[in-house]
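Subject: sequence -> structure tokens, single chain

Hey, anyone have a minute? Need the predicted structure for the following. Not urgent.
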Amino acid sequence: MAGKELGVLALLGFGVWLGGAVTFRFGGGLLFGNGPIVLAASAVGVALIVCIVLKSVMTWRRSPPDQAVTVAVAMALPGLFGDVAYTLAFAPITGLSPVTAGPYAALILFGNACLLAYALRLQQRAH
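Reply:
Had a minute. Here:
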């Protein structure tokens, strides 16, 4: 995959992360303050959304399925780096209790794990 395409994918991934960060900033109280069932539902929702976004971007960019893991990693990396800063300054950024940084991190890790597992499945099915 060409460097320019990787850059486009990284920018798209950053946009997805930024949208999620803004959502968590303004809706974090609902997601993290209403118990484990709401948190679990949010995690499933995030996982579904990132998988749909991956598949949509791959179709739009005409990325072959045998490059699904590369596409997923290129899209996930900017957000993972952003989440380091976001998690370190979680309370000031979100206005939520620092105690909710753990559930936030778990949600992000789950979403990324599902994204990578889905990409691996797409790539293996291509072979």
